[in-house]
Amino acid sequence: MTDARHHTPQVVAHRGASEAAPEHTLAAYARAIEEGADALECDVRLTADGHLVCVHDRRVNRTSNGRGAVSALELAELAALDFGSWKGRDEAEESPDWDPETTSVLTLERLLELLVDTNASGRRLELAVETKHPTRWAGQVEERLIHLLERFGLTGKTGVAEDGEGTGDPFRTAPSPVRVMSFSARSLHRVQALAPLLPTVHLTQFASPRHREGRLPPGVRIAGPSIRLVRNHPAYVARMQEAGHPVHVWTVNNPADVDLCVRLGVDAVITNRPRAVLQQLGR
Ligand code: G3P
Ligand code: CA
After folding, report:
1. 136 C-alpha vs ligand 1 centroid, how far in Å?
2. Residue with more model confidence, 30 or 160
3. Which residues does UniProt assign to the signal peptide (predicted)?
4. To the nearest whole percent, how much of the chain has pLDDT over 90?
5. Can you list the domains of the chain with their CATH numbers?
């Protein structure tokens, strides 16, 4: 049972509510919002014609009726594919008929629109964007990402200050609801250089000695360990937090792992099952 005295972590919908709906589709993100998730997680990749789309794998084979690498396909080609019908195919229950409107390829731009629209109603929904294979693109993923976030006013700067008090800061700053995650420290450094106010998360699957000492790459604010790392090295969480780094754990799907994260006081759990985790947390 969850002990109510402990800190309640933020609940982040991994690829949307991806247990219930096809991952990385509008259907999965809309469902996560409806279920009450605090934040959404998505992976981004560049298409052949330079658009950022939300797809996890290098190829579209697993999650669509098409074939080939995302990087070799143009957005129009991806838009012709069905990213919904695979879901439920191998499961006992019947696959629902997904609405093609909400299960076509999702651009990051469309997801940002959803984020902004949701927050316009007074809700504080956050978004964790993961850069996939950024080294292949020599900075293009991060440049496109920051360009897009700037267009939506989501880099943490909100405009020219009007107070005239000569603070030397030409911008008002407000915390962005967006953070950028990566397994690549180089990718995070590029993001920091382009948008210094955006929080960054260093993802890691295994505990390096550096991580176990509570050290992250320079400038990175948040630690993003796998649940396996946390199970094997529970002291990691307190070590990071003592060093001033919040801890966001992935992918936390079973109740025992949720309880462990609560006991350890982690700051966010990234899960395919936002509704079940929120219920377990008594929310
Ligand atoms: O949230 C981090 C997690 O998504 C990293 O693993 O493979 O699901 O992108 P993956
Ligand atoms: Ca991811």
Report:
1. 18
2. 30
3. none
4. 80
5. 10-155+173-280 (3.20.20.190)
Which residues are part of the catalytic machinery?
14, 56
Which atom of ligand 1 is closest in space to residue 12's alpha carbon?
Answer: 1
Q: What does 13-26 look like in DSSP terms, one character per residue? A: EETTTTTTS-TTSH
Q: Under a CB-based contact definition with an 8 Å cutoff, are residues 207 and 229 in contact?
A: yes
The finding on whether 43 has its CB within 6 A of some atom of ligand 1 is yes
Distance CA 155, CA 146 (A): 7
pLDDT of residue 27: 97
pTM (global) more than 0.80: yes
Model ipTM?
A: 0.99
SS3 call for 152: coil
Ion ligand 2: residues, CB < 5 A:
43, 130
Least confident of 53-57, 90-94, 181-185, 269-273: 90-94
Distance of CA 76 to the CA centre of its chain: 25
Give the Cα separation of 43 and 134 in Å (integer).
11
Q: Which two tokens stand for residue 209?
A: 């000695």
pLDDT in tens, 5-35: 457 999 999 999 999 999 999 999 999 999 9
Of ligand 1's listed atoms, the one at least distance from the Cα of 224 is: 2
Nearest CA to ligand 1 atom 2: 250
